[in-house]
Amino acid sequence: MKTIGISRLVVTLFMGLALALVSCTAAPAPSKPAEAPKQEPKQVVKEEPKPAPTQAPKAEPKQQAKEEPKPTAKPTPKPQVIKMRAAYAAVDASFLPLWVTKEAGLFEKNALDVELLFVEGGTKVMQALIGGDLQVAGIGGAPLVSAALGGADVVQVATGAPVLPYKFVTVASINEPKDLKGKTVGVSGFGSASHFVTVLALQEFGLKPDEDVTIVQTGGLSARLSALQTGANHGTVLSPPILYITEKMGLKVLGDLTEMDVSIEQGALAVNKKYMRENEEAVRRFVRAFTEGIHYLKTQKQFSVNVMKNYLKMEDAAALDEAYEFVSKKATAKAKAPYVTEKGMRLLLEQNSNNPKAATANVKDFYDNRFVKELDDSGFIKKLYGE
């Protein structure tokens, strides 16, 4: 019995040990949750399909809008074309800048529709300007000053040829100035540029106009030349290119006025002051086109010679070439910026000394350089000449 009891005791102890062992091996189970942190890398954001911060610039769909072409700016509307009527007073080369401006399309370039007419004689042109038939007059300064002293509301705004483009031509029997005493000299009209220049020349010769010499109204260049050929007149002033054919006719050049150090407003532009006040932009465009015309004349010889040939209806190539050289290199030498000169206008006033108003007149009332000055100050003229 004791043996059995011992055996049971042993069995009981063995089973207790087994249970203890089982409990010992099961004890680590609760520690498994502690291993969870080892699996945390699977939770790292890196593995999620979120873009890395450094990749953000690649996703720029919204920024593409900046690269899209901007709406095209509306084109600046073309200026409204202004119609104007202008006239020149003589068929001589001093008006070549005006002719070239017209024929080269420079008025159209400046949004002007200009009808250019020939009205013989500065006095007649001034009458048309004063009467409103013209908006711009191409004249010498002399008829403008005479008209203004007479009360006309006119002003000069540019000068294309600020020199005397004349020579005093006589019949073959006149050998020296004193031979003109008691003779007849022709001008286009009283108060015209040719009249002013004739008086100036006679004074230079030491003669008294209207005392020593009779001055008569004869007409334009062709009419005055014909009067010399027929002997109706004994002398007159002529300008290029007709001037260059006088020697072939047996006529004499008594004096070269182009060599005189005289500033004169020749080939000038005049306007009605009232029109200028009400149509300032029109006058501005006209002066700008005229300034371009002077440059075009100086740089486009063959074109300019052809224009002169057509306007003068002359075929003499040598005379045309000489006329071009004179106008391009001498007559317009100081006209890149076609300012009206105070010296020239003052001289014109002095020649009107028989008019009491001339003594008290303010010379600056006869010209307005604002439009030329605008072009000059803006650099427009320097750009034209590449300066």
Describe what you observe in this structure.
By secondary structure, this protein is of the alpha/beta class. It folds into two domains: 82-162 and 263-384, Periplasmic binding protein-like II (D-Maltodextrin-Binding Protein, domain 2, 3-Layer(aba) Sandwich), CATH 3.40.190.10; 167-259, D-Maltodextrin-Binding Protein, domain 2. It contains 16 helices and ten strands. It has helices at residues 2-26, 64-67, 96-103, 106-109, 122-130, 141-149, 193-204, 221-230, 273-278, 280-299, 301-312, 317-331, 342-350, 356-360, 370-377, 380-384; strands at residues 82-88, 112-118, 136-139, 154-161, 167-170, 184-187, 214-217, 235-238, 252-256, 266-272. The protein has a five-stranded mixed β-sheet with strand order 2-1-3-10-4, with helices on both faces. A five-stranded mixed β-sheet has the order 7-6-8-5-9, with helices on both faces. α3 packs across α10, α3 (96-103) crosses α11 and α6 (141-149) packs across α13. It is globular. The N and C termini lie far apart (142 Å).
Shape: globular
Which class best fits the helix and strand makeup? alpha/beta
* CATH level-4 homologous superfamily of the largest domain: Periplasmic binding protein-like II
**Sheet with most strands:** 5 strands, mixed
Query: Helical segment tally?
Result: 16
Radius of gyration: 48 Å
Task: List low-pLDDT spans.
Answer: 1-61
Helix content: 40-55%
